[in-house]
Design goal:
α1 packs parallel to α2. The protein starts with a helix and ends with a helix. The model has no long low-confidence stretch (mean pLDDT 89). By secondary structure, it is mostly helical. 64% of the residues lie in helices and 0% in strands. It is built from two helices and no strands.
Length: 67
């Protein structure tokens, strides 16, 4: 469930929003995709490995979109 919420849903929502954001960018309009991370994605956390890994993915994914 954690992977479905923190990874799969983020990818699907980004895929749905990105075409209109890129079209608006060509018309000099701005838009944002905001992702909520966690400190658990930065440091290993006992008993929360899957959650931490999904937040680390979210951080990397967001950074890749920004470039």
């Amino acid at each position: 469930d954690i992977i479905n919420v923190n990874i799969v849903a983020v990818n699907e929502l980004t895929r749905a929003a990105l075409p209109s954001l890129l079209k608006n960018q060509q018309a000099n309009l701005r838009g944002l995709i905001i992702n909520v991370g966690s400190a658990s994605g930065l440091l290993p956390t006992p008993l929360l490995a899957c959650y931490g890994a999904s937040k680390a993915y979210l951080s990397s994914f967001s950074s890749s979109l920004r470039i």
